[in-house]
């Protein structure tokens, strides 16, 4: 009888770590799908002014008679099709979504990058310095992490008022602690390794040890956290804008668009909220699907 | 395999695990009482710090006078209001007055309603609590079975769907979920299917008094109004529970004691229902407790979407209308709530895990 | 051979992994008569534990018992039994004791819970009656103050105590066969002696057959009626204990006995068997022991059969009679 003995796996050509990461990543169709979504969102955000059928901020180009028309209607002057309908001010939803995606992604990405920078510095310093400095910094980090981000952001914005810069500030404030904690954790693992001892023996300055030696080894987990945090940042900004404390009306992000359309949801003009909602979901879900696989692939245990 | 729970959750739990170690430290002091006292003192310290932060944030950075006066008031009138509000005093004295009043529960009157701010908060608290508890129950009822199933049969197609669903669950923003639920259950389905019931999308249903507190889940109308908002709020937490249950189940299943249970001839139902579940309950209970605070925070969004008359909606309205005393009162209540919640969760952990509880009395 | 007792014929349990097929048990035949104690001896990776699990049908994927294997117990073919029948047999007619009692008792459940559920899994009795039986079982294994012990949690017990509880659980339904997988390996030597004595007594009292799996020949030398020595998934020698210990036939058995330090080896360097057991994924053709065997010859490239080179003593070696 057949034992169906499996043949040992044929020897594989050695790959660079990067190639291995990429090929592992592509093993999941969902992750690739997520990545596609992300690319689409980023593309839309980057090229919004050039690919939008209409500039929704140009009041002159709006025809109020076309307000609240359902998706697929042709415009009054016959020059364009409102693929996703128009809102209460006759703005083409598709264009509004493109511009909105731009703002949503911009705010999310910038806040994550800055929070990453701040958090990593704090975390690395804490890990390298140790002792009282470490304890103090981590106490602050713990305190920040133990309160819900949304409340902190809400209160902060209620005091500071509206504006993209203020939203950025609030987002950075609620996010840096994650990076600090992760960076410290990863750095602590590295700190105990021999190469740090060796570098110290060579009397290298602390900053060099920290940034040139320890940091690259912390990168994988930081990348993973950055992707997750990016999705959260976008979601948080959308929530804040939806509640009315986020971006100003002149620069509507997807969250604000959804909020604008909320009142029409039950009265039939669902598309004013629905399609921005779909766009938001595409961005967030795409990032998370890709980020989830990225986390499995970049798991330090798998990399060694 | 690397934990299936999202990293930020693990980070959050990582913070609280310090508390759990604090419980383990109680091994050296056989008195649970000393531990509780120590935690209460820590809590008091946190409250003091937070009160200073809140005070600084609201009263020092913002300008309370500006909201109370119409923009074209004269300087004399402004000065008068300033004195009335005690704003001419040095900052430290203002702070002390603030704290003194606060300890009496007096946070000033709401600018708009004229009522004491704290009173308003307490009025709306039952609604929020009802929503939060309902969503907690829903998330457990839905999340636990799905997570355990995904842990038992990780390669079944249903499991992959559940895990993907969980990613959606914790990444989609709260208000978006609410919006979609409204669209589906209050607009689309009732429109397309004649007999489908239209679920209410705003407001709270009829309430009855239970022990002096108005609750709505005891009435049919109340339940109907509760479903959509509770479901919305349960999404995020349910997703976390699914992932946690699955990860823990995967950890527990290969353990020797499960194999031994099979060797004893126990039925698979018993093994899963008792042995696996009991081990899962500990992390689930801990995380649920911690997440409860987050739930109450996120209720702010859900209440806005569904016009649910709770503390959260009050907060948003107050923020938008610049009703500062109410915002301050809300903050203090929330901080207090969190501190107590953390303490309760730590104690709960020691109750649930017999290894921790009984270490001090080991033979 | 009478129908009662255990008859294992051509048992093969293979693990189908990504790296290949691991033939953990590759053609094992033995019998255990009712009331008999069989010592199953071998080093790590010899397949002795997998044999034990196979008897109870506790092999998890990617492993499985391969077609052509037969395990007959009291006239019933276990490899063809339905899952529900297997479940009914486990814990009631065949019981198992594991190696590390800390990990075999669920740490978050009380002892009485874990014992009562075992009783109720096979008998329709109420909780009070189940508790009574559990208490009696604890007394039987020599645990003092059983009522207190019942209400305790596993981590409150010492290692030896926990193993006694495990034995008590195994005895709850008076099984006809107990498979004990290295039950004393994780315990102190003094406790080891106690447990050995208890097991011998209990099995003698109830005429329960016992398969004692161990890597330590010395442990079963005083306990077992018969000994089977396993190497790389096969039995290489089997016979009465006295015969095996005093007149071993297989070079591996001789090596095992010779490497046990005793009065006689004082002052002499400890004897070892050189080399390591082969990986179960890459078993050599022919005798698996030949690479380490001091008397290997060319013929050893062909797998010897397990033959009775002496009455009632079998060995798998071309040079057994030497």
Descriptive notes:
- The complex is a heterotrimer of chains A (304), B (363) and C (322).
- By secondary structure, chain A is mostly helical.
- Chain A is built from 11 helices and 2 strands.
- The longest helix of chain A has 38 residues.
- Chain A is elongated and about 75 Å long.
- The radius of gyration of chain B is 24 Å and the shape is globular.
- In chain B, helix 8 packs across helix 9.
- With 322 residues, chain C is of the alpha/beta class.
- Helices cover 31% and strands 23% of the residues of chain C.
- Chain C contains 11 helices and 13 strands.
- In chain C, the strands form 2 sheets. In chain C, strands 7-8-9-3-10-11-13-12 form an 8-stranded mixed β-sheet, with helices on both faces. In chain C, strands 1, 2, 4, 5 and 6 form a 5-stranded antiparallel β-sheet that branches.
- In chain C, a hairpin with a 2-residue loop joins strand 5 and strand 6.
- In chain C, helix 4 packs across helix 5, helix 5 crosses helix 7 and helix 7 runs parallel beside helix 8.
- The longest helix of chain C has 18 residues.
- Chains A and B meet through helix 4, helix 5, helix 6, helix 8 and helix 9 of A and helix 1, helix 2, helix 7, helix 8 and helix 11 of B.
Beta-strand residue fraction of chain B:
under 5%
Tally of discrete structural domains of chain A: 1
Strand order of the largest sheet of chain B: 1-2
| Assembly form of the protein | heterotrimer
Element pattern of chain B in H and E? HHHHHHHHEEHHHHHH
For the termini of chain B, the CA-CA separation is 36 Å
Strand content of chain A: under 5%
Overall spatial form of chain B: globular
Helix-and-strand structural type of chain A:
mainly alpha
Which fold name fills CATH's third level, the topology of chain A? MetI-like fold
Average pLDDT level of chain A: 79
Rg of chain B, alpha carbons: 24 Å
Specify the overall morphology of chain A: elongated
User: What's the rounded overall pLDDT mean of chain B?
Assistant: 75
How large is the count of helical segments of chain B? 14
Task: Summarize the biggest pleated sheet of chain B.
Answer: 2 strands, antiparallel
CATH C-level name of chain A: Mainly Alpha
The poorly predicted ranges of chain B are: 1-30, 358-363
CATH superfamily name of chain A? MetI-like
What is the count of DSSP helices of chain A, taking H or I runs of 4+ residues? Answer: 11
For the biggest sheet of chain A, the summary is: 2 strands, antiparallel
């Amino acid at each position: 009888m057949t034992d169906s003995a499996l043949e040992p796996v044929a020897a594989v050509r050695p790959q660079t770590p990067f190639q291995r990461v990429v090929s592992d990543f592509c093993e999941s169709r969902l992750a690739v799908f997520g990545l596609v979504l992300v690319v689409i969102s980023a593309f839309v955000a980057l090229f919004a002014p050039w690919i939008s059928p209409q500039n929704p901020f140009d009041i002159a180009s709006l025809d109020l008679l076309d307000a609240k028309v359902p998706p697929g209607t042709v415009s009054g002057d016959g020059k364009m099709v409102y693929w996703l309908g128009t809102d209460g001010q006759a703005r083409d939803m598709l264009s509004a979504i493109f511009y909105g995606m731009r703002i949503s992604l911009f705010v999310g990405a910038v806040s994550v990058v800055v929070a990453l920078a701040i958090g990593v510095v704090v975390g690395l310093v804490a890990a390298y310095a140790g002792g009282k400095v470490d304890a103090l910094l981590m106490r602050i980090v713990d305190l920040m992490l133990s309160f819900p981000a949304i409340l902190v952001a809400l209160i902060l914005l209620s005091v500071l008022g509206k504006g993209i810069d203020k939203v950025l500030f609030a987002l950075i404030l609620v996010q840096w602690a994650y990076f600090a904690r992760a960076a410290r954790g990863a750095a602590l693992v590295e700190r105990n390794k021999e190469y740090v001892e060796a570098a110290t023996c060579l009397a290298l300055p602390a900053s060099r040890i920290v940034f040139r030696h320890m940091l690259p080894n912390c990168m994988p987990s930081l990348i993973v956290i950055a992707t997750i945090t990016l999705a959260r940042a976008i979601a948080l900004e959308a929530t804040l804008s939806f509640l009315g404390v986020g971006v100003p009306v002149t620069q509507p992000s997807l969250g604000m668009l959804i909020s604008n359309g909320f009142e029409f949801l039950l009265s039939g003009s669902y598309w004013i909220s629905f399609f921005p909602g779909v766009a938001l979901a595409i961005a967030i879900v795409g990032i998370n699907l890709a980020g989830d696989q990225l986390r499995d692939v970049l798991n330090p245990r798998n990399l060694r | 395999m690397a934990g299936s729970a999202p990293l930020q959750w693990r980070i959050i739990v990582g913070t609280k695990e310090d508390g759990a170690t604090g419980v383990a430290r109680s091994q050296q002091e056989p008195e649970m009482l000393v531990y509780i006292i120590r935690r209460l003192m820590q809590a008091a310290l946190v409250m003091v710090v937070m009160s200073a932060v809140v005070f600084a944030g609201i009263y020092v950075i913002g300008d309370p006078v500006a909201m109370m006066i119409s923009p074209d008031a004269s300087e004399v009138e402004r000065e008068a209001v300033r004195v009335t509000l005690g704003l001419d005093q040095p900052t430290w004295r203002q702070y002390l007055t603030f704290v003194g009043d606060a300890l009496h529960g007096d946070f000033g009157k709401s600018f708009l309603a004229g009522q004491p701010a704290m009173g308003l908060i307490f009025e709306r608290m039952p609604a929020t609590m009802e929503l939060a508890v309902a969503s907690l129950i829903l998330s457990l009822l839905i999340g636990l079975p799905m997570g355990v199933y995904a842990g038992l049969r990780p390669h079944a197609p249903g499991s992959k769907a559940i895990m993907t669903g969980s990613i959606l669950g914790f990444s989609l923003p709260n208000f978006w979920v609410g919006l979609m639920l409204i669209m589906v259950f209050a607009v689309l389905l009732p429109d397309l299917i004649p007999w489908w019931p239209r679920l209410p999308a705003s407001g709270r249903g009829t309430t009855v008094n239970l022990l002096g507190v108005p609750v709505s889940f005891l009435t049919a109308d109340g339940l109907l109004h509760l479903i959509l908002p509770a479901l919305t709020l349960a999404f995020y937490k349910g997703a976390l529970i699914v992932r946690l249950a699955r990860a823990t189940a995967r950890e527990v299943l290969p353990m020797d004691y499960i194999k031994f249970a099979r060797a004893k001839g126990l039925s698979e139902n018993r093994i899963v229902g008792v042995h696996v579940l009991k081990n899962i309950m500990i992390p689930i209970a801990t995380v649920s407790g911690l997440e409860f605070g987050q739930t109450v925070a996120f209720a702010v969004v859900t209440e806005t979407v569904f016009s649910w008359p709770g503390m959260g909606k009050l907060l948003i309205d107050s923020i938008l209308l610049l009703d500062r005393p109410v915002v301050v009162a809300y903050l203090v209540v929330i901080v207090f709530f969190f501190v107590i919640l953390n303490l309760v969760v730590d104690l709960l952990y020691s109750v649930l895990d017999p290894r921790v509880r009984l270490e001090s009395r080991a033979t | 051979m009478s129908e009662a007792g255990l008859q294992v014929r051509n048992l093969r349990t293979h693990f189908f992994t990504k790296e290949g097929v691991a033939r953990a048990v590759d053609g094992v035949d033995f019998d255990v008569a009712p009331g008999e104690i069989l010592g199953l001896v071998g080093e790590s990776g010899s397949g002795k534990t997998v044999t034990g699990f196979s008897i109870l049908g506790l092999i998890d994927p990617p492993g499985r018992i391969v077609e052509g294997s037969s395990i007959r117990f009291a006239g019933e073919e276990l490899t063809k039994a339905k899952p529900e029948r297997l479940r009914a047999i486990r814990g009631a007619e065949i019981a198992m004791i594991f190696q590390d009692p800390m990990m075999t008792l669920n740490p978050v459940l009380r002892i009485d819970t874990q014992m009562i559920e075992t009783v109720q899994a096979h008998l329709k009795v109420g909780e009070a009656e189940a508790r009574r039986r559990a208490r009696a079982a604890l007394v039987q294994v020599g645990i003092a103050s059983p009522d207190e012990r019942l209400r305790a949690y596993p981590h409150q017990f010492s290692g030896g105590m926990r193993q006694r509880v495990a034995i008590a659980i195994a005895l709850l339904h008076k099984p006809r066969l107990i498979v004990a997988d290295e039950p004393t390996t994780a315990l102190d030597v003094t406790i080891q002696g106690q447990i050995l004595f208890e097991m011998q007594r209990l099995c003698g009292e109830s005429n329960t057959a016992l398969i004692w799996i161990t890597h330590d020949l010395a442990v079963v030398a005083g306990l077992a009626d018969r000994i089977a020595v396993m190497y790389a998934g096969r039995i290489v020698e089997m016979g009465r204990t006295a015969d095996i210990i005093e007149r071993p036939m297989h070079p591996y058995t001789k090596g095992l006995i010779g490497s046990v330090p005793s009065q006689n080896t004082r002052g002499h360097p400890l004897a070892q068997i050189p080399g390591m057991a082969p990986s179960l994924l890459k078993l050599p053709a022919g005798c698996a022991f030949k690479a380490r065997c001091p008397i290997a010859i060319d013929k050893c490239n062909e797998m010897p059969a397990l033959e009775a080179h002496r009455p009632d003593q079998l060995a798998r070696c071309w040079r057994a009679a030497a």
